[in-house]
């Protein structure tokens, strides 16, 4: 169990326990969970122009409650007794100043009222509250940018407090002899629960005592237009009750059964918002019927904004499974974890209606559906990438880090996913390059797809390892998502070209011509003396480095560190070193740039009769410099400072008399 879920269920239990007590005493007051308090505070003080969204949220909850009852009634149809037509009814009462939203769905017991309407129900909510805290820190009263946050987050039941200064929830669980209860609150810190037989015979009645500035929500035309805009396609009919007369204002027809030609973008957007509990537009809509070995309909959406729970440790998706229009569960994990940001539903004609949620995991029919849907989503993403690269790039910037998890989790679809992957690269730091683009732009004699890793694109791009690649016009992919470290080690390549880190093994790029070789006089120092220097440096550094050698990957810097062939990437190693039980870090290779003035100068000294103690200091300084370029600090700052002082002193000393041996 993660920390959040642990906390959540603990607080749910406490709330449920105190509610249980509440039943024996007439009205008990309970404190809201701290996080709820924050959300409520936001709702009560909301200066949010779209506050009509509360109605969509309450209708959505009512419809969900009806769908849950429809599911349970398959095993026990007595649950529907006397009232089989599931509906959500909206009832404005101008005299009382109340707006009532009632459903005859599953209902809640007293315990459930306390647990569901006193604590945080959703996994993303914790992240929402954190985002809220950050906003509040920077804004007056926290309501300015908070409004934008409300818009990004499906706000749920608590949104009622945007328009009401008191909310009563009367509810009775479906089933024989269930007691009715009333939950009541002004949204300021506490709520009460008491037994109340005025609760509906089955389901939930939510009575909003509207604030003075929210009385326009009592107008029938206003309600109708909100329902048309936000709730026309919830899969349960909606009725409007004026006085004693009631009429249907939305028919509850399953939108996904309708042909695409009859549906507009607005219809899809509204339905997406209902099913995803979101407020953005879908960035991609996938709607189709599969016919063949089995028949099912699919309506899936890729959001245009990141859901708050995208990196929740549970990695669970929230797609819904229906069987012949009956909602079964949103926990069937229809999508592989790396597509968990996709929202929507599958409606199967062939699964048995009485399938239990437990049996779903083993169902071969469902396995087939899962496979078909994931393939289809990936192929639709691919089509979008071809047809509208900008729209696809937006999806990739939001969900690329999640999709990339598939590169090491889903071997079967790895090539498809590599085709969908986009990267920043040294050829285009802002935009997105595909591997196809990369391969097309490869230089003559280039044999591999090169990448550099770093904590940010800017940091990765500043790496000295890139110099030789830049000088040869070789494009390098910039990998800066934590997930990159994992897939890139396992990827076998793309289009027959292996992936290679620029900071690992032999750079292997000599065969690629320099873009501008006018500055290159072909003089690599004297190869013999650089080799002598390399041998001297290796002898001085001992086991600190595996090897010292001349480099092709450097152009401007004198030195750099690289990992040996087959070892872990140095950045990954450093990242892992912070964790417990990490493997010991392996000794790197120190590479010297034979064209660099400093290396040439030192090579000459190594070959001549110079002061070897000073050259040893310089050797260590070269190593320290390489560490610094690699983003690390010298491991022994005092020794580093000592060497630096001695070398600088020798530089500024007058004539090069035979130098006195330096004292260690
Ligand atoms: N009309 C209702 N009938 C039965 N249960 C309800 C009703 N309204 C709310 N609930 C319960 O209260 C919980 C919290 O509702 P809330 O709207 O805050 O979040 P949510 O509905 O879980 O989130 P989302 O809107 O994203 O599905 C629900 O999950 C549900 O269990």
UniProtKB/TrEMBL annotation:
The UniProt entry, under InterPro entries, shows: HATPase_C_sf, HATPase_dom, Heat_shock_protein_90_CS, HSP90_C, Hsp90_fam, Hsp90_N, Ribosomal_Su5_D2-typ_SF
Q: Note down the stretches annotated as region Disordered.
A: 1-28
| Keyword Transmembrane applies | no
Q: Which residues form a coiled coil?
A: none
A GO CC term attached to the entry: cytoplasm
Q: Which UniProt keywords apply?
A: ATP-binding, Chaperone, Cytoplasm, Nucleotide-binding, Stress response
Residue ranges of every copy of the Histidine kinase/HSP90-like ATPase domain listed in the record: 50-214
Region C: start and end of each range?
575-664
> Where are the compositionally biased (Basic residues) regions?
10-24
One GO MF term, please?
Answer: unfolded protein binding
Which residues are ATP-binding? 57, 61, 103, 108, 116, 123-124, 204, 357
Its localization reads: Cytoplasm
Which PROSITE patterns does this one have? Answer: HSP90
Tell me, in one coarse class, where this protein mainly resides.
cytoplasm
Region span, A: 1-357
What's the domain of life for this entry? Answer: Bacteria
Q: How does it assemble?
A: Homodimer.
What family does the entry list? Belongs to the heat shock protein 90 family.
**What job does the chain carry out?**
Molecular chaperone. Has ATPase activity.
Q: What is this protein called?
A: Chaperone protein HtpG
- Species the sequence originates in: Microbaculum marinum
């Amino acid at each position: 169990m993660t920390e959040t879920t642990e906390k959540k269920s603990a607080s749910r239990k406490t709330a449920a326990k105190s509610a249980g007590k509440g039943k024996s005493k007439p009205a008990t007051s309970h404190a809201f969970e701290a996080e709820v308090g924050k959300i409520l505070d936001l709702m009560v003080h909301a200066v949010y122009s779209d506050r009509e969204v509360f109605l969509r949220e309450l209708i959505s909850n009512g419809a969900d409650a009806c769908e849950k009852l429809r599911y349970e009634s398959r095993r026990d149809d007595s649950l529907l007794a006397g009232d089989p037509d599931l509906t959500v009814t909206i009832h404005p009462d101008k005299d009382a100043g109340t707006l009532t939203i009632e459903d005859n769905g599953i209902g809640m017991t007293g315990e459930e009222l306390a647990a569901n309407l006193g604590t945080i129900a959703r996994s993303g909510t914790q992240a929402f509250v954190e985002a809220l805290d950050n906003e509040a820190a920077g804004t007056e009263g926290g309501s300015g940018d908070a409004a934008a946050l409300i818009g990004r987050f499906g706000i749920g039941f608590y949104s009622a407090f945007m328009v009401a200064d008191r909310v009563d929830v009367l509810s009775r669980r479906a089933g024989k002899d269930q007691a009715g209860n009333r939950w009541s609150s002004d949204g300021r810190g506490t709520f009460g629960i008491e037994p109340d037989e005025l609760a509906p015979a089955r389901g939930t009645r939510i009575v909003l005592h509207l604030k003075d500035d929210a009385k326009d929500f009592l107008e029938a035309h206003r309600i109708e237009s909100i329902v048309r805009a936000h709730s026309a396609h919830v899969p349960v009919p909606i009725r409007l009750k004026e006085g004693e007369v009631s009429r249907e204002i939305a028919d509850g027809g399953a939108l996904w059964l309708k042909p695409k030609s009859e549906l507009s973008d607005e219809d899809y957007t509204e339905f997406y918002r209902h099913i995803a509990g979101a407020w953005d537009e879908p960035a991609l809509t996938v709607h189709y019927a599969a016919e063949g070995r089995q028949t099912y309909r699919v309506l899936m959406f890729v959001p245009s904004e990141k859901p708050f729970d995208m990196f929740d440790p549970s990695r669970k998706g929230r797609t819904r499974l229906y069987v012949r229009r009956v909602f079964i569960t949103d926990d069937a994990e229809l999508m592989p974890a790396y597509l968990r940001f996709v929202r929507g539903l599958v409606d199967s004609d062939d699964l048995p209606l009485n399938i239990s949620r437990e049996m779903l995991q083993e169902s071969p029919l469902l396995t087939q559906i899962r496979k078909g849907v994931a393939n289809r989503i990936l192929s639709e993403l691919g089509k979008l990438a071809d047809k509208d690269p900008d729209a696809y790039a937006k999806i990739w910037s939001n969900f690329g880090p999640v999709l990339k998890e598939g590169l090491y989790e889903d071997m079967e679809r790895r090539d498809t996913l590599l085709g969908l992957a986009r990267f920043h690269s040294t050829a285009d730091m802002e935009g997105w390059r595909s591997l196809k683009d990369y391969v097309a732009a490869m230089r003559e004699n280039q044999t591999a797809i090169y990448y550099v890793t770093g904590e940010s694109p800017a940091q990765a791009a500043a790496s000295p390892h890139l110099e030789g690649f830049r000088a040869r016009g070789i494009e390098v992919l910039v990998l800066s998502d934590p997930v990159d470290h994992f897939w890139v080690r396992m990827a076998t390549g793309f289009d027959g070209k292996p992936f290679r880190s620029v900071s690992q093994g032999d750079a292997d790029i000599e065969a690629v011509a320099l873009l501008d070789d006018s500055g290159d006089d072909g003089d690599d120092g004297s190869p013999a003396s650089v080799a002598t220097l390399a041998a001297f440096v290796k002898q001085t550094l001992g086991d600190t480095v595996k090897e010292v050698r001349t480099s092709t990957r450097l152009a401007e810097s004198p030195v750099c560190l690289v990992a040996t062939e087959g070892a872990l990437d140095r950045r990954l190693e450093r990242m892992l070193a912070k964790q417990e039980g990490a493997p010991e870090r392996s000794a790197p290779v120190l590479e010297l740039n034979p064209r660099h003035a400093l290396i040439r100068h030192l090579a000459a000294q190594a070959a001549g009769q110079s002061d070897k103690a000073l050259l040893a200091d310089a050797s260590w300084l070269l190593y320290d410099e390489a560490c610094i370029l690699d983003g690390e600090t010298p491991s022994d700052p005092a020794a580093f400072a000592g060497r630096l002082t001695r070398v600088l002193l020798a530089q500024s000393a007058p004539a090069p008399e035979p130098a006195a041996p330096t004292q260690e």
